[in-house]
Amino acid sequence: MSVTIILGAQWGDEGKGKIVDLLSAKADVVARYQGGPNAGHTVVIDEEEIVLHQIPSGILHPHTRCIIGNGVVIDPVILMEEVDFVKSKGFQVDGRLFISHRAHLIMPYHKLLDTTREAAEGAAKIGTTGRGIGPAYVDKYDRCGIRIVDLLDRSTLAEKLLKNLESKNKVLQRIYDRDSMDTEKIIQDYLEFDRRIDAYVKDTTLLINRAIDAGEEVLIEGAQGTMLDIDFGTYPYVTSSNPTAGGACTGLGIGPTRIDRVLGVVKAYTTRVGMGPMPTEFDTEFGDQMRQLGGEYGATTGRPRRCGWFDAVVVRMAAMINGLTHLAITKLDVLDTLPEIKICTAYRYQGRVMEHYPAELWIQEQLEPVYESHPGWLCSTQEAHSFDELPENARSYLRRISELTRTPISLISVGSKRSQTIFME
After folding, report:
1. Most C-beta atoms within 10 A of its C-beta, which of 28, 146, 231, 241?
2. Is 84 a catalytic residue?
3. Catalytic site residue 13?
4. Which helix (H) or strand (E) holds 267?
């Protein structure tokens, strides 16, 4: 048995939901380690799209136990709506979903601060989803966050809320000219949430370590992607947590020596939602064409994704930072009708070639991609069930991606259905 991390190796939206769903078929435990309801994982079952935001995709397999770890920030309203949604689809949740008592809560003032601040920034905004994720993580690291365990005692909850709201209301009123928030209503709402969530709350660190000790198959899933990592992404246009492999250890409470495999999920091209640099981005006309071909709209917000050619520099960096053992390539079929396909192998900046992604934002914004061109295959890949059944040009394209990223490919997705998947091992 093994412990496998599945994470995004680009800017998120790589199709991790499908990959986690597929591999969950043989998993005993599926655990989420960071992020919040700003991430949407989409799974297609019998032609129906199921979008999950906080509950791991493994919930769609009746034998798996699912964990939301301490590194996740939880919106109780969205979580309970999601629990009800999953139940309405005929999936058992009780006794299978476990939530860390150390996980931090997204409070109403986090969402209000998020949207208010973004609106005030105008053109300089980061491009958040407005769901309070960033402000919740700010409070976590400012040591004034409210955890699920705080709901167990009303006086503790009231004391922390009063202190927080005193400072938050000052900011809302004096800086943003917004009305203050009602402390008593928030207390009552969150105590009601506690009554509903109580059956799911566990010491998930103990739970997952016992599963590993017992030799069970454990899948660990991240949200967003490597280039949105708070430390290694295109800062400040990043998320507020660590989607990279190191975040899995701190976000669940497991040691790094427990990890056996790290699977990086990438699209056969590149996409990004929100603001920030993206060196291989298409021009407007071709970007619109690719967006239609790939259905590139955010699962959580519906925002159109920016599209570009495959960036091997980005994925090579992701392979290094995460210690990727394998790649999963998604949406290969989106390229089926293109006569020419490009791969970015390096960048040019002020006359010099760069083979590594720079940290400086001002350099990132001026990078010129160095491309190599590959002939398209101009036929459908959606019916292929093995690597050998793919067109030769598609096979050559994939081999080149593996070579440039120095990472073997273990899985190829050629459509949104579970059956439209090629396993290489």
Report:
1. 241
2. no
3. yes
4. strand 261-267
